[in-house]
Amino acid sequence: MTSIDVELLEGEQLISEANELLYRQVTKHMLDGDKLKTEAFGPSTADREMPSYARSSEVTPQAARDWHTQNAASPSLGVWGVTVGEAIESGRHVVDDSLRPLADNQKRSPGHCFIDFRGLSKPQKRELRARLYFFATDRGELLTTPTLEDGQLFA
Amino acid sequence: MDSLDSDSMADVGDERKPDVKRVRLTGARFEGGRLPVDSLVELQKYQDVVRIAATAEWRRENPGKELPADLRSSVSLTIERIDEGSADVFLAFEQHQVYAQYQAEAQDTADATILAAYSDAPVPDLPGFSLAEDVEFREAVSQIGITLVAGQSIEFYADSPNAAPVSITVETRKRAVEQLSRIEDFLFATDTVAVTGGLQAAEESLVGRVTILDAEDHKFTIVLANGDKVHGWYRENPELLEDFREVVNSSEEGPLTRISGNLQSKDGKPFRFKEANSIHRIQFDETVWGEKLTSFASLASGWEDGEGAQISSVALDAAQMLLRAVDQAQVDRPGVFPTAEGGVLVEWAGPARVRSVEIMPDGVFELFLLQRTQSAGDHAVTKDLKAAIAFIEADKA
User: Fold this and answer.
1) Looking at beta carbons, which residues of chain A come within 8 Å of B304?
2) ipTM summary value
3) Whole-angstrom Cα distance, residue B336 to residue B318?
4) Strands of B353-359's sheet, edge to edge?
5) A53-73 per-position pLDDT tens digit
6) Touching check for B307 and chain A: CB below 8 Å?
7) Which residues pair with B155 in a beta bridge?
8) ∠ CA(B380), CA(B383), CA(B384), 5° rounding?
9) Which of A80, A145, A143, A87 has its CA nearest to residue A115?
10) Interchain contact, A45 vs B340, CB within 8 Å
11) CB distance A73–B305 less than 8 Å?
């Protein structure tokens, strides 16, 4: 996992700002009480090996959470984060795909990027998720509040 | 008040002849078994409603094919007999075995729609209906009761003979017609057809409690964890009757049950079992783990943002055995999660180490340990429950 095998598609570019924080949304089935599963930092089936994160240079944690809750199938229950440097230290690169063409029925969150799980074996994915988990939980949950519904003034 | 009392006869455990509608007319007009001609119009309107639904059902099941010329006429009600006393009329479908399925399903659709319209409930979706069929069907339901005058009513037992009937009167019909002609329902129906093209069928299973069993029609109803009711049939597997009898409980207190078969879904939600082919009782320990595994068992396909396989019974059973061992080993409480592949993840994750057992849908245990200071983790795969237990007990040392 130390050798970097990068194959970028049209509209994708590597992120090199090591200190930039990447926000990850956590949803219902990633939590068991206060326990967060390591899989939360890897791809879901729908992610196709490209788990979505949001760049701190583009959005706030709250804005990222709100966009997710308003547009994704499952609402975000909280935001955790890892830096680009931590992802690289864990053995993978981070790709900004905000210029990648979208199909008509697709949406992309502001500041969208992903940690590249493409081409990894299942054991390699497990290890990468676990290492990202270590960094993210060292940092702790990022401060956000539940997304308000339209017309709702208070949480 | 004159009363036209319609009593559905197709319910569970009912020893009366199935698919028979009993229409009882009471009041001075009907004494002596007299059946005024104008009351026949109402029966004919009900028949029209069922015919439209049967046609839509056939088109949905046979896309692109030409409608059989005899389908519509085959869905015909006939007066089987009129008993003495007040006019006590028994109606039956004329027997056309080849279309019996469409008759039964169309009658369900018709009864559910009438029930909703006269209960002030949302009129159910009419999946697979074209816009023209949707409009024609609603219009036909609206016509029921049009001959009534003040002081007359039709008591309609749409749900079951024991449930409270809906009452069709001049007054209640006004509200029902409003319900049936709501513009947003028409718009919804149009969108539905355009987006989904009807129902999607797949081999799937659902977990819930069986509350209704109709042995004559080989039909059942299962109530899911979210309260949704899903109907289904087991016509090609009549041997399932005994299994159904063991789990059916009308008060929704029966055992949790997994039913598998050809499930039709609409807009990603379960609609009905076209044919059930297996039924299994689900029972977990009465513990926190048991409660959690029950919730996993109830996850429908697509639980993870539209994807995510149903959690397999094999994985759930294996997880239960592993979690019993966790309790006995007195190790820290793990996090327990469903996995997108249809398995269960049992994980101890902390700042210095991650240890996990992923139980695959086929019951295989995938063991993983990563110390933060290690450059690589330890991975193993085993079918041996004892080996998986030994792996988690290593934390005790």
Assistant:
1) 29, 44-46, 74
2) 0.92
3) 13
4) B335-338, B344-349, B353-359, B365-371, B378-382
5) 999 999 999 999 999 999 988
6) yes
7) B5, B167
8) 95
9) A87
10) yes
11) yes
Q: Are strands A78-83 and B20-26 parallel, antiparallel or unpaired?
A: unpaired
Do the Cβ atoms of B178 and B118 come closer than 8 Å? no
Read off the pTM.
0.66
> Which residues, at least 6 apart from B249, have a Cβ–Cβ distance to it below 8 Å?
B209, B210, B211, B255
pLDDT tops 70 at residue B291? yes
CB B206 within 8 A of CB B262: no
Which residue from B210, B216, B200 is spatially nearest to B230, judged by alpha carbons? B210
Separation in Å, CA of B394 to nearest CA in chain A: 19
**Cα separation, A25 vs A77, whole angstroms:** 7
Tell me whether strands A52-55 and A21-26 are parallel, antiparallel or unpaired.
antiparallel
Closest chain B CA to residue A91:
B375
Token pair for A35: 């326990």
Q: Which of A131-145, B82-96, B110-124, B155-169 has the lowest mean pLDDT?
A: B82-96
Asked if B368 and B356 count as a contact pair (C-beta separation under 8 A), the reply is yes
- Give domain limits for chain A: 13-139
Q: Which residues of B touch A30 (CB under 8 A)?
A: 337
Residues of chain A with Cβ-Cβ distance to B379 below 8 Å are: 123, 126
Nearest CA in chain B to A138: B351
The residue that leads in pLDDT, B194 or B319, is B319
DSSP string spanning B313-360?
Answer: HHHHHHHHHHHHHHHHHTPPPPEEEE-TTS-EEEEEE-SSEEEEEEEP
No. of H helices and E strands in chain B?
Answer: 10, 16
Beta strands per DSSP E along chain A: 13-14, 21-26, 31-32, 35-36, 52-55, 78-83, 94-96, 112-115
